[in-house]
């Protein structure tokens, strides 16, 4: 179907990527229907603000709400999750028994935190952190208890640890890596950040994993692989997340570790479906041809907008999505930028004093191109390095996108809709839960 004739676009996922996609459709003059299926009951909000403000009570949920120019054009289906995709019939199957017909579909379902085996069974005072409800629950728990164990010292774990500790809670972080944020900022800034956390009173245990949980009344006991035990009143499991794409199984899309897209964000095998944000795995041809996911706010914003363009332009005319990705983390008042592909090679200092969290490190790939950097508290250097990475790794064009081929064969023909979801009724039918009043 020519993209210009689209009259009904469904967006699955009401996070920032889905929201920005809707906004862009309207900006582009698309005047058909837009339906957003959003599993969370809340309007879209600024997820990074959960650890940078909400957890320590500095901001309210209302202050995190995202603004968007939607001009009353979007129909929201809050608290409804997609459970399947019948790509042949062009409809999304919903968990309330309805289905959403579409002409164009935007997949923007983000991520779900990974659970740690045994943790839930141990006690309900063990939780994960992805949504505003998770953050409010953790905040309430932290106010009631004296100590919290954080399992995982990546971006979410380390930011949450700082927020909880700053609020007066005793915090222990356990991570398998040699430093906090090792896989986000590399070893050198990782060491500096770990020291900063320790100076502020966070107990950091590195090179360790939780092997088992012991349940004692009012206390959690995590047993580490080396036999050590850590006791706490509550625990946060922050060991990463996996893409929320289970509902795309059997749809014809390759939904292993994110939904596989081509360079334009079109889902491989499904020409009228695009994907964006954390759940999308796509080749950023600025760097290489290997599909990868990026879990960063700014990329989700840009990709949501790009996916809307790609859907309207169609697979032949759409441009490749090839940003220089950038993300940030803020802990104990120190802001760090991650630019491009910082961990593609070994990082070397290029500015200031990175060991004191005031400087920059950069990395080159095997061809000697500047491909990534991490920058602490040097905003101007960060902007300059971002530009320099863009210049060293130039934007691809339509020809590069057309030449790209998916790495593994995927089934071209969408499979039939999963069994057990029929009969589904369209969105337009409202389900009645109580008899209408006479
Ligand atoms: C606590 C926290 C702190 C962060 N801090 C930073 C930071 O400092 N810097 C940074 O760059 N990035 C940060 N991030 C990452 C950033 O928030 C994400 O990259 C961004 O939110 C991704 O946007 P998205 O729209 O792709 O996914 P999401 O924001 O996850 O939105 C996806 C939405 O889809 C919904 N959904 C899922 N499945 C379905 C379904 N089947 N049907 C319907 N709806 C569904 C989900 O409920 C969710 O509301 C942080 C993330 C977290 C969790």
UniProtKB/TrEMBL annotation:
Gene3D superfamilies: 3.30.390.30, FAD/NAD(P)-binding domain. SUPFAM superfamilies: FAD/NAD(P)-binding domain, FAD/NAD-linked reductases, dimerisation (C-terminal) domain. Residues 419-432 have a biased composition (Basic and acidic residues). Keywords: FAD, Flavoprotein, Oxidoreductase. Residues 400-438 are annotated as: Disordered. Pfam families: Pyr_redox_2. The keyword Cytoplasm does not apply. Its cofactor is FAD. Signal peptide: none annotated. Residues 401-414 have a biased composition (Low complexity). InterPro entries: FAD-oxidoreductase/Apoptosis (IPR050446), FAD/NAD-bd_sf (IPR036188), FAD/NAD-binding_dom (IPR023753), FAD/NAD-linked_Rdtase_dimer_sf (IPR016156). Residues 9-304 form the FAD/NAD(P)-binding domain. This is NAD(P)/FAD-dependent oxidoreductase.
């Amino acid at each position: 179907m020519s993209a210009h004739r689209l009259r009904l676009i469904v967006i699955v996922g009401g996070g920032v990527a889905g929201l920005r996609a809707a906004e862009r459709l309207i900006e582009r003059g698309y005047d058909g229907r837009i339906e957003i299926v959003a599993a969370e009951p809340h309007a879209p909000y600024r997820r990074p603000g959960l650890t940078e403000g909400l957890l320590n009570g500095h901001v309210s949920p209302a202050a995190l709400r995202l603004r968007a120019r939607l001009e009353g054009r979007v129909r929201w289906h809050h608290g409804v999750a997609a459970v399947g995709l019948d790509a042949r019939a062009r409809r999304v199957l919903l968990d309330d028994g309805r289905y959403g017909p579409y002409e164009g579909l935007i997949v923007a379902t983000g991520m779900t935190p990974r659970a740690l085996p045994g943790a839930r069974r141990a006690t309900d005072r063990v939780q994960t952190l992805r949504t505003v409800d998770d953050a409010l629950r953790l905040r309430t728990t932290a106010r009631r208890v004296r100590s919290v164990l954080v399992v995982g010292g990546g971006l979410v774990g380390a930011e949450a640890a700082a927020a909880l500790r700053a609020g007066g809670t005793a915090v222990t972080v356990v991570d398998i890596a040699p430093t906090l944020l090792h896989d986000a900022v590399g070893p050198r800034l990782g060491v500096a950040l770990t020291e900063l956390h320790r100076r502020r009173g966070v107990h950091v245990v590195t090179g360790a994993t939780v092997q088992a949980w012991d349940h004692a009344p009012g206390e959690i006991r995590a047993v580490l692989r080396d036999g050590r035990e850590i006791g706490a009143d509550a625990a946060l499991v922050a060991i990463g997340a996996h893409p929320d794409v289970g509902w795309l199984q059997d749809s014809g899309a390759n939904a292993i570790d994110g939904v596989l897209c081509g360079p334009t964000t079109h889902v491989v095998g499904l020409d009228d479906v695009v994907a964006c944000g954390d759940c999308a795995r796509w080749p950023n041809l600025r760097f290489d041809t290997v599909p990868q996911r990026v879990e960063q706010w700014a990329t989700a914003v840009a990709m949501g907008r790009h996916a809307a363009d790609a859907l309207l332009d169609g697979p032949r005319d759409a441009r490749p999505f090839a940003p220089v990705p950038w993300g940030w983390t803020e802990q104990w008042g120190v802001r760090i930028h991650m630019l491009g592909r910082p961990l593609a090679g070994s990082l070397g200092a290029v500015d200031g004093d990175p060991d004191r969290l005031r400087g920059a490190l950069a990395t080159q790939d095997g061809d000697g191109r500047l491909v990534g950097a991490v920058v602490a508290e040097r905003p101007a250097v960060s902007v300059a390095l971002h530009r320099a990475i863009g210049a060293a790794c130039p934007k691809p064009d339509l020809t590069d996108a057309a030449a790209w081929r998916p790495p593994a064969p995927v089934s071209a023909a969408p499979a039939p809709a999963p069994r057990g979801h029929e009969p589904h009724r369209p969105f337009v039918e409202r389900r009645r839960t109580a008899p209408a009043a006479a």
